[in-house]
């Protein structure tokens, strides 16, 4: 099981800085998802910045979410 998300910070160019419960920090690029289904709403930069941690994963107000597994496995260490 991968560690849970402790904090998330939205950055420029649809990047997220994600800190995990094991102390790891990763950079996750959301841009490949922006043309897919419910994630198209994330193109609005003010909406993109509304990301928050929920139950060890991340979520936006209209319930788009990314699991801690996706973020941890596909994120780039920083």
Low-confidence stretches: none
Radius of gyration: 11 Å
Q: Please work out how many helical segments DSSP would assign.
A: 2
Structural class: mainly beta
Distance between the termini: 21 Å
DSSP, total strands:
7
Along the chain, the helix and strand elements come as EEEHEEEHE
- Biggest sheet overview: 4 strands, antiparallel
Q: How is the largest sheet built, in terms of strand order?
A: 1-2-3-7
Task: State the shape.
Answer: globular
Strand content: 35-45%
* Proportion of residues in helical segments: 10-25%
Look at the structure and give the mean pLDDT.
97
Q: Can you describe this structure in just a few lines?
A:
This protein is mostly beta strands. The chain is 14% helix and 36% strand.
